[in-house]
Design goal:
The complex is a heterodimer of chains A (249) and B (312). Chain A is an alpha/beta fold and 249 residues long. Helices cover 27% and strands 31% of the residues of chain A. In chain A, strand 7 and strand 8 form a beta hairpin. In chain A, helix 2 packs across helix 5. Chain B is 25% helix and 29% strand. Classes of the chains: A alpha/beta (249), B alpha/beta (312).
């Protein structure tokens, strides 16, 4: 195949302890480390492995985000992507709007495969890949833990509640990644230097002519409710007595 | 009146309890008139089970060979067609619903509310974000259909005892053939499903090996419990990933959860926030799991579990 497109999202790093702002207007993001959404990093790794096997000619990384999202695209280029596209938007866009914008980019680049994370670890929506596949009228294979390509078809193993579901899809298709698909590579310093010379195109989101103002609006943000303090027991008899008291055994 | 359409989850013969949990959620909408849609092949039995859920006023059975497997690309156009008569279209926030509902929302050109944990008002919902570290209230504008998934761990299954009418429904939407089901591989065997079990026993890295996990299985089988595991135990190769409980595995809400040899990493705790009672057994008194456990017992699991097995 010629092109694989990988959609990335810039998110608060997964190691950061999330704090809700006291006024309930959001979470604290000032001075917080930002990274590529971990599931999207897995998507990029998979695309790079396909290219390295000789099954694809180029890997394009695309993101929708503020100017600073160039950092995450540069990381993607350092991992091995060939070129990057920043669709610049200072406002957050919903998964539906993101899918519509990505579709416009797909129409330009005509990828044979689009891979992205099953969800972003900030809004936890788990929607964009499915919406993109639907609007593109192409197959979706969500929560992938294994991807095998053969000609114009892909066989995808999906992590579902009942176990592992295997489906076959015609290409082009949209794949969303689950955690166990692969382990993303670490970026090496020489690759970071090389990435600075790779092409990074910036396009204003308004140029796509897609309505991106949100339908669903965010109201108050709150801390989750905590659990009440528990008790410690000394031995198995104490445990069984405590369970009996709660009428659980 | 608010017309609600709930998409049933089932395996061809049994309705999944996630459906009755979605009914519980929908019952919180003022004036909800709830219809359950069953998509299947030879799905009369499942439709009848759905008709028995309290609070359901009608069941639509869309019975056709193409619906033998729950493929999003095949189901979504049918749901979008039925959706014309409804204000709300809900599915469970299981892998079934997560895969399917965004496709429905895209066909209807509306944004989706993921993981409803509380209905605040007819258009106002609470949902977890940042892996449950923040709770966000969202508002869906008037006049727009509400397409949503329901966080099953936040709701108890609606009781049985209903007697809704079952109607055969036909749809005319063109269905694609670009996506084909191959097979389902399951390693769970005959034990209760983690998402629906009332009692779940989980093992962590402290269990030590794949062979040692028998101690967990034996206790679970005596108590009729589902078996889960921490990500550390999965990564160490003790058990398969479909048993993983946590942010990157399953989010569960049994009445009783017994965590054995699990330290309690944040990512695991995220998966058990809605458990009724958490019991922790660990040899390390400083393990974070004790901070959220309702009942804690410090000690060697290889001494404690055989005693528990004998006495309980």
């Amino acid at each position: 195949m010629k092109t694989i497109m990988v959609c990335l999202k810039r998110v608060v790093d997964y190691n950061v302890r999330i704090r809700v702002k006291p006024d309930g207007s959001g979470v604290v993001t000032d001075g917080v480390k930002m990274s590529i959404n971990p599931f999207d990093e897995i998507a990029l790794e998979e695309a790079l492995q396909i290219k390295e096997r000789g099954d694809a000619e180029e890997v394009v990384v695309v993101t929708i985000g503020p100017s600073d999202a160039q950092q995450q695209l540069r990381t993607g280029l350092a991992m091995g992507a060939d070129r990057a596209i920043l669709i610049e938007s200072d406002a957050d866009v919903s998964p539906l709007a993101a899918a519509k914008v990505f579709l416009k980019q797909i129409e330009k680049d005509s990828p044979d495969l689009v891979i992205l994370g099953k969800q972003a670890i900030d809004d936890d929506c788990n929607q964009t890949g499915q919406m993109l596949a639907t609007l593109w009228q192409r197959p979706q294979a969500t929560f992938a833990s294994k991807l095998e390509l053969a000609g114009d078809k892909a066989t995808v193993t999906r992590e579902v509640d009942a176990g592992l579901e295997v489906i076959e899809v015609d290409l082009p298709a949209v794949i969303t990644t689950d955690l166990r698909l692969n382990e993303p590579r670490f970026v090496k310093l020489p690759d970071i230097m090389k990435a600075k010379k790779k092409p990074l195109e910036t396009i204003a989101i308004a140029d796509f002519g897609v309505e991106t103002s949100p339908q669903i609006t965010a109201g108050n943000w709150a801390e989750p409710a905590g659990r009440a303090k528990g008790i410690m027991v000394e031995d198995v008899d104490g445990l069984i007595a405590a369970l009996k008291e709660k009428e659980l055994v | 009146m608010s017309n609600v359409l709930i998409i049933a989850e089932h395996d061809g013969s049994q309705l999944n309890s996630s459906t009755a949990k979605a009914v519980s959620c929908a019952s919180g909408i003022d004036g909800a008139d709830i219809t359950v849609a069953v998509f299947g092949s030879g799905s009369d039995a499942v439709a009848n089970q759905a008709a028995g859920i309290n609070g359901v006023s009608k069941v639509l059975n869309v019975d056709k060979p193409e619906n033998a497997q729950a493929l999003s690309a095949v189901l979504a156009p049918q749901i979008a067609e039925l959706a014309a008569a409804y204000d709300y279209i809900f599915g469970p926030s299981t892998t079934f619903g997560k895969d399917l509902m965004p496709a429905v929302a895209a066909l209807l050109d509306v944004e989706q509310v993921s993981d409803i944990m509380e209905v605040v008002g007819p258009r106002e919902f609470k949902r977890p974000v940042y892996a449950g570290n923040a709770i966000l209230t969202v508002n869906v504008p008037d006049g727009s259909k509400v397409v949503a998934t329901v966080r099953t761990a936040s709701y108890k299954a609606a009781a049985e005892g209903g007697s809704a009418a079952v109607e055969a429904a036909s749809v005319s939407a063109a269905l694609p053939s670009h996506t084909r089901y191959v097979e389902l591989q399951s390693e769970q065997g005959e034990r209760p499903d983690l998402q629906t079990a009332k009692l779940v026993i989980s093992g962590g890295r402290g269990v030590g090996s794949k062979e040692n996990f028998d101690i967990i299985y034996n206790l679970a089988d005596k108590l009729g419990a589902g078996v889960g595991a921490s990500r550390a135990a999965v990564d160490a190769g003790y058990v398969s990933n479909d048993m993983q409980v946590g942010q990157t595995g399953k989010i569960i809400a049994p009445d009783l959860y017994i965590a054995i040899g699990i330290s309690g990493a944040i990512q695991h705790l995220t998966g058990i926030k809605d458990v009724g009672t958490i019991v922790a057994i660990n040899k390390d008194p400083e393990a974070p799991i004790f901070e959220i456990a309702d009942i804690g017992l410090v000690g060697d699991l290889f001494e404690i579990i055989p005693q528990l097995q004998e006495k309980i």
